[in-house]
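--- STAGE predict ---
source: upstream dedup step, 1 unique chain passed
mode: sequence only
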Amino acid sequence: MAATTTTTQTQTTQTQTPKLKACDRCAAIKQVCDRVDGGGACSRCARLELPCAITRIHKPMGRPRKKPAVAAAVATAEQEVVAPPPVVVGMVHNDVVSAADVSSAGSESDSPAADAAGQQRHHSRPACRIKRVQRTRSGCITCKQRRKKCDEALPVCGDCNRLGLGCQRVPPPPRPSAAHRRTPSTSSSTPVCTSLTAVRRPLHHASSPGLQLTPLSLYNGCTSNEQHLLQHYTHVVSRSLSVVPDEINAFITLFVPMALAQPAMRSALLGLSATHLKRIHSSFEVTAVEYQNRALKLANQLLMRGTQDAAMEGLAAVLFLCLQEVCEGKSRKWPLHLQAAVTIINERGGPMSYPLEVRFLIETVAYFDAIATLSSSKSAFLDQQFYLPPLLSPSLPAHALFGTSHLLFAIIADISQLAQVRHIRYHSAATSRNFHTLASTLELQLQSWTPARCSSVTRDPHLERKITAAGVMLQWAALMRLHLVAADVADVKHPKVRVAVRNILAALETIPPGDLVESMLIFPVFAAGFGALGAAERDIVDSRFEVMERSIGFGNVFDAHEAVRVHWARMDAGEYVGREVSWEEVVGSAGGSLIMS
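--- STAGE serialize ---
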């Protein structure tokens, strides 16, 4: 009786749950709780007027113990003597027991050694069975190559759908017919079936509703290295160039099919992708040069044909050669490629003579033509009327390059043209009056500009807010640039410059770091860095440039960041004391022709 009481007390002590002292609120944030039993709420909950209670259950640590009912059943089974079941004639049993089993059970129960062995087997039996991981071989080939677990969803698995990869699957072997069931299979390989719906989202261009991007795994004639570079362009480089999501990104929907069909365009696109990759892997440097030389050779051959199709293909190749030089950084060749692209357009009758399917190609050249004037302080090559916003389709919320700020780029080109002729204001009173009148007109246009609303909703619900903030940053950067051109003395301490810097940085805070819209922010962030005076302003500009270097990865971002840091070092060293701070001087400190896009 005493032994039974002792056992019951021991089990009660083992199953007793420790008392919790901290309330639920303090325990959730891992703070010290001064709650006293029966003393009401703790000081934190009383101060914040929160309910102070303990409703959670203590979770014991260590290995889980056996349940009391299971432990009692095991102890009872150890004390009982195993006896053979009675054999009753005419009675049906669910469990069929043979005579050999009955005799062996009876012989084991008669010996003490057998009893000890039975008890040992009871102790060695696990309390619960560990569930083993079930391994299957029906996952897709893409996940197997990436060494990732496949969820085996059909028709496209979850990872391939999320990453936009080609979901390749090995189809089950066909069932042999009755005539061939006895004959072993002699095929040495199994055909690979690729799902045509492997692209994460349907990618359509606004001007070409029937244009759809094919999975890269189905591209015939592409080597493994080319497929790798095409994948890097599709998932990384194209997003560094565009401000809109993939489903309306014309850098994917237009240029990738062109690259697959045209050798010159393919070499230029692969060269751009290799140039972007060589900052991480130096082994791609030779690959980038090879593709660049091949693209130059093929582009020259195309331009010598003189046909419209050859000119369009050559223009696309020249544009991507220009982008490759921009990605390289510290290059003086991209203005030559840009001028060559403008020449090709003008020789073929101007921008409006090209079909609508490749209008984005002309708009890309016009975009870089406008943004390049910020570095050269010269007028644009193309007509400014071409920058006016086109009629947007309901399925196109914003332009991949301009966003909703088409008109701002036309005004930026006019400001650069004004900077080119600013020396004439000193010739006479009439020229000075005309110069300031033109500057006042541009300032009025900038102040009256408002960003256009996006016409539809994409998978990014905040796209309109971010593009609007980017347009506001461009607006204030253009106002700052106009003041520096029109003022007799360019002073970064001028009230107009200070207001522009504060508004640019305020709008920058609304755009998440690493967002697609950052491809429009090189010029505004550079302008804010040009006028930044305090440590707080410089820290914001410096940190955002570091983020853009990692997210965009183009050399012009590194060049713009370096130019701003050189400008700050000169300002702190007093090199600007007694003289004017020149925008062109700061831009030229990057060591090349800086393009702010």
